[in-house]
C-alpha cells in the first residue's frame, strides 16, 4: 500500500523516540529480544484510502497480544456472545497480563476478560476447526481479510521460541483444564496460541485493521462489512477497559481511544469513525506496552483532540 510520509508526524516520532531509552525490549520470549529498541514507526489510515506515516513502516513485527482482540472477534462470530461469555468475563483485572492470581478466587474458575492471557487462551480454545493447522489457517485468513493483505503470514521462529518457553501459559491452561474450563491437549492449544501471537505484519497493515474496528467492522476500502457491528462494539469496549492491561485506566485518561498493545511493541488504535492507527516501537515500559508508542499517542491525542471522552 502507498502511504505518504508526513513531516509533522515525523517530528513527533523523533520526539517520542527519545523515550525508547527508558524502556526495554521483551526477552521472556527469547526471539523477541533481538529487536532494535530504538525503532519507532506509525501509520494512520483514513476511511477515504489516504494514509500518512512516519518511521520505517515496512518493518514487520509480531502481533502478540494484539491478536487477542482479533481472535475474540473471530470466536464471537463463530459462536455468538452468549456462548463466549459463559467461559470468559467482561471485567478488567488491574493485574499484569500473565497473572494467575485472580483465577483462583473465581469459583467456578473463569478468566475475568479475554485480553489477559488466561482469557485469551480460553478464547483461542474456542476457535473452530478439525486440527491446530486448520484452526490457525481459518484465523490467519480472517486476519488477512481484516488487513486487506493476503501475504500476511507468521514467524515460525518466534512461534517456536514462545512455544519452548511458554510454561506460565501452560500453567494457566492446566489450571483452567482442572476446573473444566478447557479440554483436550494443552500443548495443542499452546501451539495454536503461539502461532496466533506470531502473526507478522507492518504498521500499514495494523493501521488498516484498526480502521476496520474504528468503522464498526466495515472496511471502507473494500466496501465489506467484515465484522458485525455488535462484535466490533464488544471488541472496542475491551480495548478501552483492558487493551493496555493494568495501564488501561491511565491510557483512557491521557489518550482516550480504543487500543490494544502487544509485547513485540505494536499498538493498534481505533479512533471511532475517524481512522486506524498502527504503531511499532519494541522498547516496552514495565507493564509491557510500547513506551515511545504511548508517548507518541499522547502527543497526537493532545494535538488533534483524539479522546472520545
Ligand atoms: O502470551 C504471551 O506471553 C505473549 N504471546 C503475548 C503477551 C503480550 O503481548 C502482552 N502484551 N503486552
Structural description of this entry:
- The chain has 309 residues and is of the alpha+beta class.
- It contains twelve helices and 13 strands.
- Strands 1-4-3-12-11-10 form a six-stranded mixed beta sheet. A three-stranded antiparallel beta sheet has the order 5-7-6. A two-stranded antiparallel sheet has the order 2-13.
- Helix 1 crosses helix 12, helix 2 packs antiparallel against helix 10 and helix 10 crosses helix 11.
- It is globular.
- The two termini are 32 Å apart.
- The structure holds 6-diazenyl-5-OXO-L-norleucine.
In short:
The protein has 309 residues and is an alpha+beta fold. It is 45% helix and 13% strand.
Protein topology:
Elements (H helix, E strand, L loop, with lengths): L3 E2 L1 H11 L6 E2 L15 E5 L5 E4 L6 E2 L3 H14 L1 H7 L29 H9 L6 H16 L5 E2 L1 H10 L1 H12 L7 H12 L1 E3 L1 H12 L3 E2 L4 E2 L3 H14 L5 H7 L4 E3 L4 E6 L3 E6 L2 E2 L6 H14 L5
Parallel strand pairs: 1-4
Antiparallel strand pairs: 2-13, 3-4, 3-12, 5-7, 6-7, 8-9, 10-11, 11-12
The protein binds 6-diazenyl-5-OXO-L-norleucine.
Amino acid at each position: 500500500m502507498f502511504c505518504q510520509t508526513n513531516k509533522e508526524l515525523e517530528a513527533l516520532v523523533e520526539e517520542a523516540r527519545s523515550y525508547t531509552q527508558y524502556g526495554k525490549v521483551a526477552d521472556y520470549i527469547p526471539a523477541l529480544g533481538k529487536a532494535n529498541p530504538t525503532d519507532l514507526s506509525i501509520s494512520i489510515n483514513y476511511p477515504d484510502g489516504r494514509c500518512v506515516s512516519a518511521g520505517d513502516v515496512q518493518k514487520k513485527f509480531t502481533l502478540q497480544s494484539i491478536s487477542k482482540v482479533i481472535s475474540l472477534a473471530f470466536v464471537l462470530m463463530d459462536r455468538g456472545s452468549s456462548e463466549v461469555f459463559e467461559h470468559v468475563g467482561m471485567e478488567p483485572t488491574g493485574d499484569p497480563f500473565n497473572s494467575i492470581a485472580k483465577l483462583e478466587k473465581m469459583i467456578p474458575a473463569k478468566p475475568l476478560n479475554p485480553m489477559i492471557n488466561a482469557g485469551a487462551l480460553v478464547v483461542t480454545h474456542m476457535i473452530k476447526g478439525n486440527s491446530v493447522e486448520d484452526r490457525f489457517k481459518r484465523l490467519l485468513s480472517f486476519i488477512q481479510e481484516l488487513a486487506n493483505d493476503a501475504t500476511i503470514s507468521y514467524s515460525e521462529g518466534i512461534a517456536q521460541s514462545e512455544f519452548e518457553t511458554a510454561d506460565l501459559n501452560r500453567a494457566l491452561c492446566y489450571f483452567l483444564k482442572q476446573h473444566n474450563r478447557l479440554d483436550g491437549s494443552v500443548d495443542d492449544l499452546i501451539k495454536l496460541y503461539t502461532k496466533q501471537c506470531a502473526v507478522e505484519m507492518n504498521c500499514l497493515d495494523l493501521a488498516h485493521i484498526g480502521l476496520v474496528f474504528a468503522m464498526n467492522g466495515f472496511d471502507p476500502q473494500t466496501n465489506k462489512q467484515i465484522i458485525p457491528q455488535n462484535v466490533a462494539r464488544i471488541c472496542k469496549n475491551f480495548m478501552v477497559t483492558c487493551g493496555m492491561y493494568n495501564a488501561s485506566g491511565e491510557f483512557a485518561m491521557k489518550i482516550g481511544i480504543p487500543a490494544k498493545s502487544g509485547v513485540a511493541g505494536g499498538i493498534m488504535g481505533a479512533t471511532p469513525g475517524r481512522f486506524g492507527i498502527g504503531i511499532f516501537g519494541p522498547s516496552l515500559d514495565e507493564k509491557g506496552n510500547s513506551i515511545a508508542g504511548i508517548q507518541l499517542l499522547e502527543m497526537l491525542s493532545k494535538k488533534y483532540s483524539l479522546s472520545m471522552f
